Input
Amino acid sequence: MDYDNLSKTILKNVGGEENILDVYHCITRLRFHLKDSSKVNEKEIIDSEGIAGAQFKGREFQVIIGNHVKNVYENLVSHMNGSGKQDGEVSAEKTNIMTKLMDTLAGVFVPVLPAITAAGMVKSVLALLLAFRAVSAESDIYQLFNILSDAAFHFLPFLLAVTSARKFKTNEFLALTVAGSLMYPTIITGAANGGVLHVFGITIPFINYSASIIPIVLSVWLLSKVYRFIDKRTPETVRLLIAPMLSLFIIVPISLGLVAPLGNYAGYYLASFLTWIFAVSGPVAGLILGAIIPLIVMTGMHYVVNPIVLQNLNQLGYDFIAPLFFLCNIAQAGATLAVFTKAKDKKLRSLALSTGISAMFGITEPAMYGVNIHEKKPFYASLIAGGIGGFVATMFGVKVYAFVMPGITGIPAYITQGGDNTNIAVIILSLLITFASSFGLTLILWKDKKINIKEEPQIVPEETLNEEFVRSPIEGEIVSLTDVPDTIFSKQIVGLGVAFIPESREIRAPFEGQVTMISESKHAISLKSKGGIELLIHVGIDSAKLGGVGFEVTVKAGDNIRVGDKLMEVNLDYLKEKGVDIITPVIVTNASVFNRIELLGVGSKGSWETNIIAVL
Output
């Protein structure tokens, strides 16, 4: 395929580079957001060699290419002076403001969670050791691990500078330099004395930005705008020298004099407002928030809470919101484990037990989505129990003293230094009340449904044909490719296969072989069996626009796989919430090299053991 000629043809017939707002690619197609859709010569594009089809999906124009799409994309971008977008990114032109905020907070904050959670766990272990007098606060070993527990929080602006630079697509090292200006010793030490600088008519207050969040995020966002503006307008011969220097020359004074102080005050007053709310309404606020936390998590707004928790820990030395999330997780665990004790179906019992235990340790999504929401009444029970626990905890003023996973391993973070055991006793009491309420209410409200087992799809016996079988990678209803609302699949442009209406979040290996490719937006994975079958599993239609959110991949390209190995987990509820059709094609992309392909079980329900494709 002549990629150069093809990309030039496409570029010309979408109206030229000046008509492109952005372009990215998924696993099979180029996706354009255009200024003027009337400039597209769709027929010319479709008639071009190497093009399998083209279509408009809402405001997006899609050019269907197939397995060579990445090569075509890279060549196309080379003719656009390197502009365009990476796989899975979409234009934010029509994005809701709240959605933008949630996506930004997730992109900036989630990558640093392992570091600050680990530091918080170390701090909670130190608190436990101090409580049992196993170490002294003056000992060298305590001092060493106290440094470890404080480092990630103290230098949080540096961590967030990196993630913010990645999110806002600017130079990470310039972002780190901006963070360094906020954390420079002159600023930190001067903050204790209330000093200021007067530069260019700007008053720069000395503020301690250690452990702060909003100042560096806003500063890097502004850096991305300024640097991009200067970089585009600087001659290439001096760009490397001039653009970074001018950007920092502009950004650092503005950041220190305006943006960072405003961000610092915004965080301070937001935390103070929440403190006031809880001080005024007390247990009522705990009851309401404790009950609705799962709903907050489902909307993605929980990303707003983590910065507030850190702000409280930095300013007050403790936080009163994170305990409510802990209680919510225990409520989910109680409901799920009640389902385990009452369910008759072995599969549901196994799922409830494993996800219930995970929820105890702070990982609740499998329990919440896989069991409680699916069964409905356990979810209602968990909401009520979370409210009860929140009421009790807030009434007694429970506090957490470190940023930890909201699970039972974080209990030591509730130990109050100085020998007062009231706080740890109250959180344990609140946890027991929450768990008992959720467990008991679920036993009362939930009734196990009678299981109707559908007849398994007819499977061609292996001994009668020298065939290789593809097992079901998903649990759900097997449907024909003609039911897929996308011509590249329904017209079998990519290959032969079936599609699923998923009922399980997990995608598993359908044969023994190797992972050959995972899309950057995580919505599609390609496999190759030992017998040579090349298989594409494409989760959802237009799911590339989510940019990987909602997908958790557990393997990487090149990994060897066995039948039943977990490949990825998909948040189906999130996909539905974002308007993504969850129908999932499973395609043999090299069907032409085989003598015969038999599709099995269309119209029936596929389980992990079901053979869905026979290849001769």
Observations:
- Residues 83-95, 450-465 have pLDDT under 50 and may be disordered.
- The longest strand covers residues 496-502.
